[in-house]
Amino acid sequence: MSSTVPFLVRIVCYWQGIIPASEITPEICTHIIFSFIGVNDSGNLIYLYSDEAEIKRKLNEFQKLKSKNPKLTLMAAVGGANDELLNAFDNLSKTESGRENFINEIIKFMNENSLTGIDIDWEYPRNDEEKENFILLLRDLHSRFSLSNFTLSIAVAPEKWRSEKSYDIPRLVEYVDFINLMTYDFHGSWDETVGHHTQMFPHHGDSSYIKELNCAASISYWKSNKVPAEKLNLGIATYGKTFVLSDISKHRIGSIVDVEATKNTSGIIGYNEFCTSLGWKQHFDTNYRAYYAVKDDSWFGFDTKQQVKTKARYAKEHNLGGVMFWSLDTDSNENCKHGKFALISEAFKELNS
């Protein structure tokens, strides 16, 4: 695909560094976010999951993607689903000096690695004090970033109950360029019945709480809190969630789960792994308008190319800022019948048609 195709909306792609940067097709993304960099209590950046030399090697390769797509915005995410970072974010954001040091560290890191944006992924502010400190941190980041035209985004929880606890939404939206809604992981090993973790729409027969656990409900909630649609990116997962069925003859969404057996599995399969795995029988649940597959007592809920197309079309029809993918690393590869990055490419085609 040519990088000369004009993007109508954002296609934000997270990259974990699992696959080499040289294997990425940068033309299908408007933004690529390297994930993750950590932070300590003082606001100093730390390296997660790999040592400093390895991270710098990956970021050096990352920079080369701009030559293939000059319009591409290269960013890094600070944070992630890491409990050790919760106290660090809390402590650094409490004081003006802590926030200033953190921002200085970030700007230095961006300049050293030819990046032009940062994604803050604080998972998640736990109380009113942290909610307020998050606002102060974003305010100060915005103030400094605007001087250099850097991009500032955040990754946020999709659920209404968690968002109410963690975010002062009408205020935070003033300081960020866009918001990556993590509209996945709605369901998982904690559930006693099968649920699709990245379900697009609600089912009329669900309880009022379950009706909130889907992409459309999340978008609606954030928009109802004075967030302009163009600042929202609909999150799409390139992986699926698994359950172990209690009764293999009952596999529709809502069926009973063998909870203990489910907890003893990894619970996640990447689309790159699933697309070459044999023996799965695919189904479409008409009530939930969601795809899943079954093999023996294993249940796998995921997004197909068709479902990604549906989500991209939803983003376009509802005038959203775009879509976001977690992540490039688990999208399809050359061993899959649909070729490399089939899911992200499907969104690219739909949003640029």
Automatic annotation (TrEMBL):
Positions of the GH18 domain: 9-353
One MF annotation (Gene Ontology) recorded for this entry: chitinase activity
InterPro entries registered for this protein in UniProt: Chitinase_II/V-like_cat (IPR011583), Chitinase_insertion_sf (IPR029070), GH (IPR017853), Glyco_hydro18_cat (IPR001223), Glycosyl_Hydrlase_18 (IPR050314)
Keyword Kinase: no
Keyword Ligase tagged: no
GO cellular component, one term: extracellular region
GO biological process, one term: carbohydrate metabolic process
Keywords per UniProt: Signal
Name the UniProt record assigns to this protein: CLUMA_CG011150, isoform A
Organism: Clunio marinus
